Amino acid sequence: MGGEMMEEEKEPEKEVNGSEIFKEFKEYSVVEFFKKNRQMLGFAGKVRSLTTIIHEYCTNALDATEEAHILPEIMVKVEELPDEHVKVTIQDNGPGIPPSHLGKAMGMMLAGTKFHRYMQQRGQQGIGGAGCTLFSQITTGKPTRMRSGLGDGKVYECDMKIDVKNNQPVITNQVEFMGNFRGLRVEAEFAEVKYDKSEHGVYEYLKRTAMANPHAQITLIEPTGEKHVFQRASEKIPEKPAEIQPHPLGITTGDLVDMAHRTDSRKLSSFLTNTFSRMSSAKVEELAKLVPTVNFEKHPRDLKWPEAEAVVNSVKTLKWIAPPTDALRPIGPDQIDKALKNILAPEFVSVSERRPKVFRGGIPFMVEAAIAYGGNSGRARSDEGRGGDIIRYANRVPLMFDGGSCAITEAVKNIDWKRYDIRDFDKEPVTVFANFVSVHVPYTGTGKQAITMEEEIVGEIRYAIMEVARDMQVYLRGKVREMDKETKKKIIMRYVKELSADLADLAGTGAPADIEKKLVDMIETKYEKIEGEAEEAVDEVKEVEENEKEE
Amino acid sequence: MKKKSEKESSSEVLGKLEGLGRDMLKEIDVGEAPTFECLLRSRGNILFDESLGYIKLGEKRETRTFLNVGQAKKFMQTVAVASKCKKFLKEDSHTSIRGLFYQLKFTLGDSVDEDLFSEQSESNPLVEDLEVALDVKREDLNLNTDRKGVVAGNLVLKDKFGGATDEIDCSKQGRSGWMIPSDVDNGMDFVSVDADYVLVVEKDALWQRLNEDKFWKKENCVLITPKGQSSRGCRRLIRRLADKKLPVYCFTDCDAWGWYIYWAIKTGSMNLAYLGSDIATPEARFIGVTMRDIVDYDFLGKLTIKTKDVDLKRAEEMLTYPWITAHKEWVEELKTVLATKKKIEQDALQGPRLSFVGEYVREKLEKKNFLP
User: Fold this and answer.
1) Beta carbons of A530 and B44 less than 8 Å apart
2) Is the ipTM, as predicted for this complex, more than 0.85?
3) Which partner from A286, A367, B258, B361 sits 20 to 30 angstroms from A301, CA to CA?
C-alpha cells in the first residue's frame, strides 16, 4: 500500500518524509480487503464465480439441516436476465435463521458460526453467505433478498447489503408475516458470472454434491427452464460431526497466535493444556525446555509471533499420541453405493472400506474411494463416447477446480489402469470417486480446491482406488467370460492375418496364406474349449500388486 | 539361466529367432495352438543366488497361447516384435526400443479398427520377454539403450559399426574419455587390456579430477564412471573386464544412494534380474567413502552433510536385502547412517587439496581397506 502512495508523488527528486507519505494511509476493513482480493473467495472467472456462489449457499443449507437433524430439500434456480445479469434463487427446508442473527450470518464477513470451531464440517471459511451478498452488491449494486422461517408460523423477509467500510449489515424493507414456511430462501442478482454445463459448472457441482450426500434431495432449474431432480437415495441423516480439540501437530503459527489471543486461560501453559488434544502438563514442561526463551507462565495474550513460531517448530520435534479417530465422519460405503447407483445408473459399483490413517506424523484422515463402470459413469466426450472421470471431495464437498495439482488426481494418474483391464482411462465409461475425510484438510491454496500431494496421502488414496479397481476388473473379466463363443472367435480372428504374415517372416519359411488357413480352421473347431482363463488373469494381477507392496 | 558365451554372433541370434518361429509353425502343422514360453519376470520369480552372488530369475514359467482369447493379442504382438528384430539383424541396422515401437505402430487393417501397438508400454515388456525366452540381450537384437558412462585407461578395443572398423585407444581420449556404448559385445573386441585393476568412480566430477591427475596412467588402472546409476552397457563392460581377471574396486559417495550404485554393479538389480550373470560382478569390492572414514580422516568430520529422507528410506530398504545384511560391515555402515543422519560426498575428499582424492584411493588399495 505504501508503494501505491509513492506513485502519487509527482516530483520524484524531492525527498519526502515518512509522515507525509503515510498521511493518506488508512486502515482497510476486512470487507474492503476481500473486495480487492475477491479471487481469495473463489470469485475468479465467470463460471467459477457462479459455482462458488451455489457452493456457499448449498454447504450452508447442508450443514444447517444436518445440525437440526432434518432431511434436506434444496432447490436452486438460475435465471438469465438482460445485460448478462444472472439471478440465483436458493431455498432449503432447514431450521431457518432467527431475524436477530440474519444480519450477522449473511451481512457480515468472518462472523459465521464455523470460523472458530474445530470440527469436520463442509464449509470452513466462515465467509460464505456474506461473501455472496458482497459479490452481488459489488457487481450489480443490488441488495440480496432473504426469507427466513423458523417453522413457528412467522416468516421474516428483508433486503441485505453490507456497509463495506465497517463490515456491518445494512437491512432494509423488513417485513414479517404469518406463514408455514420453514428454512431459508435467498434471491440475489449477480453480474460477471456465467451459467454453462461444463465440468466446472453448477449442474456438475450439484450432481456431485448429490453423490456425496445421498440423504439430500436437490433440484436445479436451469436458465432454459429445464428441471433436474437429484432424488434422495437414503433416509439416513449423517451423524453430527463431533467438536474435538485440535492436535498439536496440525497447528500453524497463525492459528496458535489467534487462539492464544482469544482464550480465557490466564497462563500460556494452561492455555496449551486446555486447548490442545494430547497436551499434558508433562508435555508442556518438555516444550518449555526446548524453547527456554518463552515464558510459559505469562498471559497467552502476550504471546508474540516469533515465540509462537518457536513453539510450533518444537512441537514437531516431540513425539505425540495420535489424536482420536472417532471425530472422522465418512459418508459410509452403503451410502456411497446407493448414491452412485442413484445418480449414475451404472452397470457396476464398488466402494472401498478402509481404516483411518495418519499424515504428518499425527493427523488422522480417511479415504473413501469408489468406482462405477458403465451406464452414465464417466464424462461425455466430444466424439460422443464416454471417458474416465475423476470426482474429488474433501469432507463431501466437491472439489471442482485445480484438479491438476490435487493428490486425488495424482493417485489416479499413478495407477496402471491396464492392469485392471481399462485400456485407456480417458476412453472408458468409468467414474472414480474419492472423498478425503479429515478435520484438517491440507488444501494447496486459499481456493480450497485441491489436496496437497503428500506422499502418505497420495499413497493411501492410490491403494483405496486400487482396491475398488480390482473388484471392477473381476466384473469386467466376468463380462469377457460370459461373451458368447461367437464373440470370442471374432476377437481371435482379428489377429490371424497379421500373425500369419509375421510368423512366415520370422520362421523364414511357409506361406502366410497357408498359415492363415490352418489357424482359421483351428479356431473354428477349437474355440469352444476356451473357458476359465479369466480367473487366472485376475490372480496374476493380484500377484503383481502384492509384489509391488513388498517393494 | 545358463552361462552365456562372451558374445552371441548375429547369425546365432538369427538362428534362435527363426527357431522360435519354426517351433510355432510345427505346432500349427500338427493342429495345436502355437505357444510362446518364457520365464516369469515378476517379483515373485526374482531371487538372490547366494553361491553365485547375483540376482537372477527363478524357475517359474509362463506360457502364452494364441487360441486363448485373453492372450491372443499379446501373442501376435510378441511374434511381430520378434519378426521385426530379425529384420534389423538381417539389415545390420540398429534402433532404440522407441524406434521399434514406431515401426510397429500401425493399424491391423481396413476391416479391423485396432492398432498392432498403440503405446510403447505394450512393446517394451515384450522385448524383455524375447530376451528371456531366447537367452539373448536386447543389444543382440540390434536394439540400443541410452549410452551412459565414460572410460579411460590402457584399454584398446576394435569397434565394427556401420560398415567401418575403428580401433579405439582409451588412453588417448584426452579430457573427455571414451563414452561407453550401449552394446559392448556385438562388433566389439578387446585388442589389449594392459591394466592392474578397474576403478569405478560414481561421479563424473571425480572421474575428471582423477583423469586430470593422470591417475590411471600412474596407477595403471582402467578408470570408469557410470555417472550415477550404471547403464546396461557400463555394467557389461565392467563384467567383461572382470572376466579378464582384473580386480574391480568401486568408489562412491558415502550415502545409501552411492552404496546402492555399488550393489547394482556387484549383484545386479531386480529390474534386470533376467540378465543375471551378464551384468553382475560379484568380485567387486568397495573402497569408500565409508562412515569409518570420518573417524580415520579428521577433516572429513567437518565436511559431512545432513541426510535427506530419501537417503534414510533407501538405507532402510537396503537393510531388508538379505544379500546385503549377510555382511555385518554393511549392516554397521547402514545403521550408522540411520543413527547419525549424516553423509559424505566423494567430492569432500578434495577438502585438504585437490590431489588428495588420488592419495586416498592409493592408501585404501595399499592397506587393502575394502568392504565386501
Assistant:
1) no
2) no
3) A286
